[in-house]
Amino acid sequence: MVRHAVTDHTGKRLSGWMDGISLTEQGREQAEVVADTLADVEFEAIYSSPIERTNETARAIASRHEARVHTRRALGEVEYGAWTNRSLRSLMKTKLWGTVQRFPSAARFPDGESLREVQVRALDEIERIAADHPNGNVCCVSHGDVIKLVLAHYIGVHIDLFQRIVVAPASVSVFSLSERGPLILSLNATLMSIPAKDGS
Prior knowledge:
single chain; about 200 residues; Rossmann fold; two-stranded antiparallel ribbon; globular; disordered C terminus
């Protein structure tokens, strides 16, 4: 799973599902670095959240493989509802912010989703994709909280601890799914080599 590269909102505002939030020049450079890093991985398919910033990142990766990007709504950002486009500084002053940080299983965004709902729909989609590609490599480009929630499940960490996981912009996290269970091969890798499928 790859987190999208940076936008003008990254680390400042919650973009959510807003239109027109594209990668900055730095973000486009990050996407190219990720694409170069993953250029030698043989992907059966590349999937992305339908949101612009993830699609831009995914297209950079796909360009190295002459592949098309398949969009999946379930890989999309958290539905932040009334929190969309608000600054993180202002949100940190709310009571709900404390819940999101310390007791996220109880958090529901106003007019939006709960984090438990996000985890379930993202995991359902990842497992559908895995079932379609049981023996191949797949790239899924998504969003920070979504990726953290997926990783928390496969690591075996309760959702209330998912904020301990760091997923930086343009980072790559690699896991393997099989009948023997999930294996975490790489977490939050940036500007470094990614382990091969055989672990080397």
